[in-house]
Every structure is written in structure tokens, then in C-alpha cells.
Inverse folding.
């Protein structure tokens, strides 16, 4: 199982969570390829062919990002726009990534309790991630249960180290539950 982690953090230097996750997962270069989109494309001109070839070489693709305005930072959206072209990313029968696994690793500043119809954020994370679910469905990938951490500002150094360890275990697992199963309520 070869995993590609596409990292989309506009300011990794000031990051605590994503930086500690990356520090840990870089210990597994044979199993995990880390590709930092903001570092690779400071001019935002994405090399579509390179991105498509890189994605094809892996079985599992993970989008890793901090939750910004209930979504991903914009360069990841541009990656989707540019790379998932008709004929490659999708056709009437899925696309070239069909059959691969797609995962999300997201650091979230808010509290999980607020991501609820009666909480401050009104919607569950499951609901807010529905565009990724629909995208995965269209391109024919299997969306995995996301790896998340909430309350990022309140996390101690020990908690960050522990989260990073759990993240590498998640990435290295042979089997990860599907997106739907994580949110099944019955
Ligand atoms: C521009 C911006 C938008 C943000 N939007 C949200 C948001 O919609 N929901 C949320 O829970 N946290 C939000 N946050 C907080 C980030 O999710 C949090 O700072 C980040 O995940 C921490 O990870 P890091 O240490 O790797 O930067 C936002 C932060 C910034 C800078």
C-alpha cells in the first residue's frame, strides 16, 4: 500500500498541528510520500501532468489541511479544479483514480461539540465534508473515514506528539473504515 499525502497549508512555518504530523510521517518514506502543494507551487501554477502521474503511482491519496472557513485552503481546491480534468479525473464511469482510496486529515480549530445543529457551527463535520464525499463518488474513489483533531489551539505538546503518532498509524493501516461508517448513528 503506497500512500500519497497532499498537504495544503498556506503557512506551515506557523503551524503546530500539521507541522507535527509531517515531522512524524516523514519517518516512513517507503510507505508515505509527502507532497507539500504550497511549497511546490508558490506561483499557484500547478503542473497537472506531474500531479496526475504522482497520484497514479499511489493506492491511497490523503488530503491533509487545516480547516479554513469550513473547507480546505484554496490551493487544494485549485488542485481539484486543475488536476481532476474530464477524461482523466472523471468520465461517465469514474476516472483514472477509480478504485483508489481517498482520505482526509484535517486540523480543526473549533470544538467538536460546536459542530452540531445546536452548536455554534450549525453543521456536523460530516455534513461540511459532503463536497469531498460527492467528489470522491464522482471520481470513483473510496472515501475513508477522516482523521481529525479539534480544539487545535488548546493542544499541549504531548497531545500533538500523540496525535501525530495516531496519524501515522492511520496512514500505515492496511484497512481504514469508510467515511460513512465513521458517522453511522445506529
Ligand atoms: C483563515 C483561517 C480560517 C479558519 N477557519 C476555521 C473554521 O472554519 N473552522 C475552524 O474550526 N477553525 C478554523 N480556523 C482555525 C484552524 O483550523 C486552525 O488554526 C488550524 O487547524 C490549526 O492547525 P495548524 O497548527 O497546523 O495551523 C481557521 C484559521 C484560519 C487562519
Amino acid at each position: 500500500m503506497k500512500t500519497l499525502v497532499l498537504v495544503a497549508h498556506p503557512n506551515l512555518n506557523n503551524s503546530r498541528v500539521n507541522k507535527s504530523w509531517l515531522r512524524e510521517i516523514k519517518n516512513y518514506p517507503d510507505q508515505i510520500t509527502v507532497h507539500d502543494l504550497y511549497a511546490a507551487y508558490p506561483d499557484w501554477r500547478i503542473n497537472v501532468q506531474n500531479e496526475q502521474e504522482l497520484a497514479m503511482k499511489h493506492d491511497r491519496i490523503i488530503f491533509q489541511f487545516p480547516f479554513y472557513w469550513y473547507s480546505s485552503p484554496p490551493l487544494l481546491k485549485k488542485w481539484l479544479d486543475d488536476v481532476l480534468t474530464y477524461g482523466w479525473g472523471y468520465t461517465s464511469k469514474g476516472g483514472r483514480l477509480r478504485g483508489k482510496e481517498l482520505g482526509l486529515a484535517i486540523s480543526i480549530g473549533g470544538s467538536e461539540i460546536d459542530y452540531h445543529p445546536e452548536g455554534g457551527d450549525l453543521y456536523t463535520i460530516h455534513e461540511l465534508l459532503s463536497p469531498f464525499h460527492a467528489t470522491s463518488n464522482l471520481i470513483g474513489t473510496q472515501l475513508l473515514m477522516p482523521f481529525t483533531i479539534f480544539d487545535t489551539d488548546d493542544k499541549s505538546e504531548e497531545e500533538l506528539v500523540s496525535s501525530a503518532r495516531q496519524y501515522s498509524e492511520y496512514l500505515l493501516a492496511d484497512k481504514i473504515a469508510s467515511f460513512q461508517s465513521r458517522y453511522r448513528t445506529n
Q: What stands out?
A: The longest strand covers residues 60-66. DSSP finds eight helices and six strands in the chain.
